[in-house]
Write a structure and sequence with these properties.
It holds the Pfam family PAC_bac. This is Prenylated flavin chaperone LpdD-like domain-containing protein. It comes from Faecalicatena faecalis. The chain is an alpha+beta fold. It has a single domain, classed as Ribosomal Protein S5, domain 2 (2-Layer Sandwich), CATH 3.30.230. It has a six-stranded mixed β-sheet with strand order 1-2-3-6-4-5. Strand 4 and strand 5 form a beta hairpin. Helix 1 packs parallel to helix 2. The longest helix has 20 residues. The chain starts with a strand and ends with a helix.
Length: about 120
């Protein structure tokens, strides 16, 4: 990965954009999308050896949410997956907002987030 990469997925009803910046050995992720891009959550994920003792990497995450915001699901997933794959500290901030979003649309957003996480891990 160069210093900065942008990943974008078009959804049936909107789009989601993820900007990943390499900061030394660590990563900063900014996630935006929907009708009203904003910062509704920040997650900091720190890699560590898994408690299973099998040599795999796990993470410990700290989360700050704005009251009433549900952006943690997106930010936590991206931060934790990237921290595990890159074995690096990762911060992820951002927000995705759609008025009256449906469960089907939420599922579509999270599928796009999972695809982006895979792309980041390859970068």
């Amino acid at each position: 990965m160069d210093r900065e990469e942008i990943y974008e997925k078009k959804l049936s009803f909107s789009r989601i954009r993820v900007r990943v910046t390499k900061v030394g050995e660590d990563y900063s992720i900014l996630t935006t999308g929907g009708e009203k891009p904003h910062i509704g959550c920040t997650v900091l994920s720190v890699p560590r050896p898994s408690l299973t003792g099998d040599g795999s990497v796990s993470v410990t995450s700290s989360v700050i949410n704005l009251t009433g915001h549900k952006d943690e699901k997106i930010c936590r997933y991206l931060a934790e997956q990237t921290a595990k794959k890159k074995n690096a500290v990762v911060s992820c901030s951002g927000g995705f907002h759609m008025d009256d979003i449906t469960e089907t649309q939420i599922t579509e957003v999270m599928a796009a987030v999972a695809e982006i996480a895979q792309e980041i891990s390859k970068g």
